[in-house]
């Protein structure tokens, strides 16, 4: 209300706070509301020991008068603070209460560093015992007053500063230590950095995940719809970090008074629903003396409040559209399901039970309407959900339904040291079979196999053109992808840097064209002719080279004669047996240290049209990957300089990203291959130049297909099926596609064990040339697992049902595990297999009585134990 009222600085006076306490006591307290939290502005100066003093203007009868009044109403009191120590307090050099050897002038970190977003104070040096003594003295004073809650604002990393230029983590730990003995709730604010979620969970009871929800529209509104809708993508990242012991905080819930909220009734209900299903604190931001009837109905709906207090944050099925389904699994086997329409017009929103992990029918209840809607076999569709509106449901599975419980569900309890993912998970993977279709019916020899050929069209942003070039498309002359690049000026050139063992320059031949000088890695190789006396030859290989060392190479072509020089495509050859995974610069697998920024929409040919950049020497990126090699790919430009590259902590090379003229997009500036297949780390450190950029990393891993290249000859006598061995169980293979066409299992191909046989009848129908058949393998359930390396570490799951099944990963690095049901050892299972598998059924126990049961799994041997899904049947 301070930011809504024109007299915000004096709004939190004694009379106002007492009025709010009385209003809460009368209207909201019977429903569980109990905190009166006082935001910024309650204090004025410090006492003789440097501890905050309450304002005598706001509280003329003393702060204790207000605190006692609130406590007498059966409520708790919260106040506000920020990190750091003020310059005035440093200069005053006051003694610390109870520690005369400590002075406030000695507490600031040297050299001085900004402590908060606004620059009010300096960071405190928490390595000094006197600093902790100072925080303890303040916490002790708060406890004497009867304070129950502390909001700690402007916490970094977060609060608009996530590059560690401001860092309040040490003070967060210090305040936690000071407050914990007194049982004072510790809430962090604002827009905390997700990368440090585990740290916030270790030291705090709650943390704000975004900026202020208020619109800062004094006298007009408390908030606005965009401030609500922006929380959805934030919670899609944060949901799993909330739970018992610490909660995601969405800021104040401003839905209690339509005249001041700034939201429509549908938007108010949607906000209340989002707070409820996220298990976020219901901090009401309105003047409680002015709540309207609709606002009261939102804040006091007992079924919705029960969702909030169940403490099970919801997750989205998908955030790809404005029609979103969010859900959570409750302890009683029911689901809470919210159907949000974030779009600007009424829409239909459908929840499919399979997306929730439920197989079978379910009873549905509308929680806002407090109305049973009936039984639904496979899902529920809400029609005409208003713009920015919502339906909130309780979905109760019928007897005989099965429920899949993901490894990160709160109902799964872990004992010992477990980690989510960490590179041990498997996401959906597509690996390609490089297929060459030839036809030697008229003579000739089919090309040899064992080499992958990748076609690179002339408009690929990694190709550099110097001089005056133009693009011609839709010529209808047989060009690859129906376009070419062309120039008319002698001396104009193209160049392309690639990773591989060979390359073909493919272009049109015609009487209007002439000679081209070809250079490879700066060495002149040959003058080739693109002249053809009559007719026109499309997609002609006019130069090819093979047998290069597998690594980075550059081909350059310079126009020498003729009216035109054209480029249609390159054929790049790489060794078989390797697949490449591209990590964009914003991938979570890449870590940045120092001050980095993200530039998007540059239009310079960047991979996914964005880059990360740094300007300070010493700033660095690093990425830990699993594979046999990696490429560092970035822009080259005159503004850039040298980068030191390290692999597994060992300096390898200083590479230069400079380019005297022009701009090179997606350039491979460093490449390494031949690493042992396993976990490795690449690190790049800025050494010189104005900027260092990261566009993407290409990680090489062994192919899941053996072989991953094949040649098929359409000549009748030469036709033969192609057999491919899979590096994953055949049950993990979800599809094979050529372009957008999905091959038909049983007709186009068959599977037997871990082998796929591509039928010659299918292959004979394909056009001659190069193509890729894309084999797609399923992921771990929800793309994640939990894993432990410690023998004796365990997971436990309580359920009520008649059958329980454990589905998880199998892999060469796994061993044995003991499975208990109701504390009785049932079976020792072996999870070690020659290849990595997903969602393998490891253990099933049926015929259980329809009572409460406990499944417990204990690691016995092997390098790892992974947990993915527990499935049980209701009765």
TrEMBL record:
Family annotation (Pfam families): CBM_X2, Melibiase_2, Melibiase_C
Domain Alpha galactosidase C-terminal: 322-395
EC nos: 3.2.1.22
Keywords: Carbohydrate metabolism, Cellulose degradation, Disulfide bond, Glycosidase, Hydrolase, Polysaccharide degradation, Signal
Residue ranges occupied by any Carbohydrate binding X2 domain in the UniProt entry: 706-779
Catalytic EC class: hydrolase
Source organism superkingdom: Bacteria
Record's catalysed reaction(s): Hydrolysis of terminal, non-reducing alpha-D-galactose residues in alpha-D-galactosides, including galactose oligosaccharides, galactomannans and galactolipids
Family listed: Belongs to the glycosyl hydrolase 27 family.
Protein name in the entry: Alpha-galactosidase
Organism: Kribbella ginsengisoli
């Amino acid at each position: 209300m301070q930011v809504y009222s024109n007299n915000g600085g004096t709004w939190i006076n004694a009379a106002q706070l007492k009025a709010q306490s009385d209003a809460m006591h009368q209207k909201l307290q019977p429903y569980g509301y109990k905190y009166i939290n006082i935001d910024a502005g309650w204090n004025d100066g410090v006492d003789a020991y440097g501890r905050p003093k309450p304002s005598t203007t706001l509280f003329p009868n003393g702060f204790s008068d207000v605190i006692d009044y609130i406590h007498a109403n059966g409520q708790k009191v919260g106040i506000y603070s920020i990190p750091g120590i003020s310059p005035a307090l440093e200069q005053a050099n006051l003694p610390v209460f109870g520690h005369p050897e400590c002075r406030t002038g000695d507490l600031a970190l040297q050299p001085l560093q900004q402590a908060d977003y606004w620059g009010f104070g300096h960071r405190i040096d928490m390595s000094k015992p006197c600093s902790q003594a100072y925080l303890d003295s303040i916490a002790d004073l708060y406890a004497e007053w009867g304070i129950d809650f502390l909001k700690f604002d402007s916490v970094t990393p977060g609060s608009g500063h996530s590059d560690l230029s401001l860092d309040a983590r040490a003070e967060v730990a210090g305040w936690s230590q000071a407050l914990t003995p007194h049982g004072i709730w510790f809430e962090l604010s604002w827009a905390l950095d997700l990368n440090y979620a585990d740290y916030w969970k270790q030291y705090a009871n709650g943390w704000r995940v975004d900026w202020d929800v208020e619109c800062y529209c004094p006298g007009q509104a408390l908030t606005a719809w965009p401030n609500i809708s922006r929380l959805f993508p934030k919670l899609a990242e944060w949901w799993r970090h909330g739970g018992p012991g610490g909660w995601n905080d969405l800021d104040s819930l401003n839905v209690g008074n339509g005249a001041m909220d700034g939201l429509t009734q549908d938007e108010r209900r949607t906000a209340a629903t989002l707070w409820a299903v996220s298990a976020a604190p219901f901090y009401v931001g309105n003047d409680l003396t002015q709540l309207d009837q609709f606002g009261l109905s939102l804040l006091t709906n007992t079924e919705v409040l029960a969702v909030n207090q169940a403490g099970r944050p919801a997750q989205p099925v998908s955030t790809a559209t404005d029609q979103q389904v969010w859900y959570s699994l409750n302890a009683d086997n029911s689901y809470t399901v919210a159907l949000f329409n974030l779009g600007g017009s009424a829409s239909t929103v459908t929840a499919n039970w399979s997306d929730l992990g439920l197989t079978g029918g379910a009873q549905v209840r509308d929680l806002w309407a407090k109305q049973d809607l009936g039984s639904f076999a496979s899902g529920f569709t809400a029609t005409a959900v208003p713009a920015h509106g919502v339906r909130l449901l309780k979905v109760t599975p019928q007897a005989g339904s099965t429920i899949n419980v993901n490894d990160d569900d709160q109902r799964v309890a872990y004992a010992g040291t477990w980690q989510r993912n960490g590179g041990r998970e498997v996401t959906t993977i597509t690996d390609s079979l490089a297929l060459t279709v030839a036809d030697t019916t008229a003579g000739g020899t089919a090309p040899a196999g064992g080499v992958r050929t990748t076609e690179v069209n002339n408009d690929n942003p990694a190709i550099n053109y110097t001089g005056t070039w133009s693009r011609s498309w839709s010529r209808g002359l047989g060009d690859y992808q129906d376009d070419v690049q062309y120039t008319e000026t002698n001396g104009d050139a193209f160049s392309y840097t690639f990773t591989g063992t060979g390359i073909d320059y493919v272009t049109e031949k015609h009487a209007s064209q002439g000679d081209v000088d070809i250079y490879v890695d700066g060495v002149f190789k040959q003058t080739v002719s693109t002249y053809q006396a009559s007719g026109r030859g499309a997609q002609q290989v006019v130069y090819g080279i093979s047998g290069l060392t597998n690594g980075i190479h550059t081909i350059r072509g310079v126009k020498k004669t003729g009216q035109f020089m054209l480029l249609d495509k390159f054929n790049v050859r790489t060794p078989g047996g390797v697949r490449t995974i591209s990590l964009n610069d914003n991938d979570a697998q890449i870590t940045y240290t120092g001050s980095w920024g993200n530039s998007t929409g540059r239009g310079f040919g960047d991979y996914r049209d964005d880059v990360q950049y740094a300007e300070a020497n010493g700033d660095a990126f690093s990425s830990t990957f699993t594979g046999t090699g990696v490429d560092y790919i970035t822009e080259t430009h005159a503004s850039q300089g040298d980068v030191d590259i390290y692999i597994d902590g060992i300096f390898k090379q200083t590479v230069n990203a400079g380019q005297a003229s022009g701009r090179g997009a997606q350039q491979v500036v460093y490449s390494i291959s031949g690493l042992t297949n396993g976990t490795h780390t690449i690190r790049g450190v800025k050494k010189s130049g104005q900027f260092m950029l990261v566009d993407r990393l290409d990680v090489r891993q062994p192919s899941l297909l053996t072989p991953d290249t094949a040649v098929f000859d359409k000549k009748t006598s030469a036709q033969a099926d192609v057999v491919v061995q899979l590096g994953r169980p055949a049950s993990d293979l979800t599809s094979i596609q050529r372009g957008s066409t999905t091959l038909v299992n049983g007709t186009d191909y068959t599977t037997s064990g871990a082998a796929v046989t591509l039928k010659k009848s299918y292959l004979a129908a394909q056009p001659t040339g190069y193509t890729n058949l894309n084999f797609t393998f399923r992921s771990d359930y929800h793309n994640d697992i939990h894993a432990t390396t410690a023998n004796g570490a365990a997971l436990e799951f309580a359920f009520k049902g008649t059958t329980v099944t454990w589905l998880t990963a199998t892999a060469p690095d796994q061993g044995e595990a003991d499975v208990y049901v109701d504390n009785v050892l049932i079976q020792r299972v072996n999870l070690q297999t020659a290849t990595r598998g997903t969602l393998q059924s490891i253990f099933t126990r049926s015929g259980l009585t329809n009572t409460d049961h406990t499944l417990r799994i204990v690691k016995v041997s092997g390098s790892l134990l992974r947990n993915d899904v527990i499935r049980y049947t209701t009765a």
